[in-house]
Specification:
This protein is an alpha/beta fold. It folds into two domains: 284 residues, TIM Barrel (Alpha-Beta Barrel); 91 residues, Immunoglobulin-like. The protein has an eight-stranded parallel beta barrel. It is elongated and about 75 Å long. The relative contact order is 0.11.
């Protein structure tokens, strides 16, 4: 017998992990990111096409060789705009036609996933569509869907989930700027409620990205800018981020005490060098590997060719993306007669002297740097101090 109860307890087992690949046009960076993360994930969920609210199909152009040679299972994801009502035979046939083309390319497709963020009132129609789609797929091809927390109070949700082989609960959402992109306490409550709605295996989608949200004068969301830049914007905008530290702690809790039926995590989305609104590869890999996160943000003044002029630069030499410092203070002894901020920082002053204040939230990715301003000073060596 064990002398100490703690010594008898098994260490938590890390939940299996997959990742969404959400690019319509693949760059070489996508295949490179897949290869770099190959040992940390067990499957890829790959965007194949999107059906817009105007009933137009936008088809992805993936790297077939990268998908064909992967050692992991591939789920083909079809996104239907939440405002579309095209849940008809034509849409079903389009999905099965794409599946056939993917298999002809040699992609090891294990399943099809439908991503349809519809209003709760549409769940019965959605269930009917999925019933027909399930019947058109062979039994070796699984059918999954993404599910929204807003559906949790509907009696239709359990009926919808009964049609599918598995599902993925999204716990990242833009609802309230004060709650951010991901709220761990709220997400945990959603998981517990969702586990009671389905008897089939399910996964949870966790965020690694940031998004810029704009609101109109009435407080309604006007634009959400994430993986693709948008030209339109509202009067008020805010950058919402998924903190690596917060998400890592949430993941540790999932490993320790998974909800009934929870069989894994799906990350949204695979970070690449091209994806500026995502965690860095080192940070993402550290979180997936359950490694300690250690950001190391420093600030320095770099002399320019012009006498007395310095660029003020933040650097992150750690393995974890870090929130941008709130304040970077310029020491009064540096005798700076002029300065200004850029890239999300503005110059201000108080009794202690000049400082750069962060004007919008964001992350400084591991291994990256950001120029946040300049200063013209009488001294060669400028003293700078970071305040979080």
């Amino acid at each position: 017998m064990c002398g100490v109860l703690a010594a008898c307890q098994r260490a938590p087992q890390a939940l299996p992990q997959q990742a969404y690949i959400w690019q319509r046009q693949w760059s070489p960076a996508v295949a490179a990111a897949m290869q770099a993360s190959d040992q940390l994930v067990r499957g890829w969920r790959v965007l194949a096409a999107e059906l817009t609210s105007q009933r137009q199909w936008k088809t992805a152009n993936p790297d077939w060789e990268a998908l064909k040679t992967t050692q992991h299972a591939v789920v083909m994801v079809v996104r239907l705009d939440g405002q579309t009502d095209s849940l008809d035979a034509a849409t079903q046939n389009h999905v099965t036609g794409m599946l056939a083309r993917w298999k002809q390319q040699g992609v090891p497709v294990a399943g099809v996933e439908i991503d349809y963020d519809c209003p709760t009132s549409q769940l019965p129609a959605y269930r009917n569509f999925l019933t027909g789609l399930r019947q058109s797929l062979d039994r070796d091809t699984s059918l999954s869907i993404t599910a929204l927390p807003t559906w949790l109070n509907s009696p239709e949700l359990s009926k919808l989930l009964a049609v599918t082989d598995e599902s993925v609960l999204q716990v990242h959402a833009v609802m309230n700027p004060r709650q951010g992109l991901f709220d761990a306490e709220r997400a945990q409550a959603w998981l517990k409620a969702y586990a009671k709605q389905t008897s089939h295996p399910w996964r949870v989608a966790l965020p690694s990205y940031s998004t810029r949200v704009s609101w109109d004068d009435n407080g309604r969301i006007s634009t959400v800018e994430s993986e693709r830049p948008l030209l339109a914007s509202g009067n008020v905008a805010q950058e919402l981020t998924a903190s690596p530290t917060v998400v890592s702690a949430f993941l540790a809790q999932l490993d320790k005490d998974p909800s009934p039926g929870l069989v894994g995590v799906v990350w949204f989305r695979l970070p690449t060098e091209d994806d500026v609104r995502n965690w860095s590869q080192p940070t993402w890999q550290a979180v997936l590997a359950r490694q300690p996160l250690k950001p190391a943000v420093t600030v320095e003044a770099l002399a320019t060719a012009q006498a007395g002029l310095h660029d003020l630069t933040l650097r992150n030499n750690g393995n974890a993306d870090s929130a941008l410092p709130l304040i970077v203070r310029i020491d009064a002894a540096s005798a700076c007669d002029a300065a200004d901020g850029i890239n999300g920082y503005a110059l201000e002053a108080d009794a202690q002297g000049k400082y750069l204040r962060r004007t919008r939230e964001g992350l400084l990715r591991a291994g990256y740097q950001r120029n946040i301003g300049w200063a013209h000073c009488g001294q060669q060596h400028i003293q700078l101090h970071v305040e979080h």
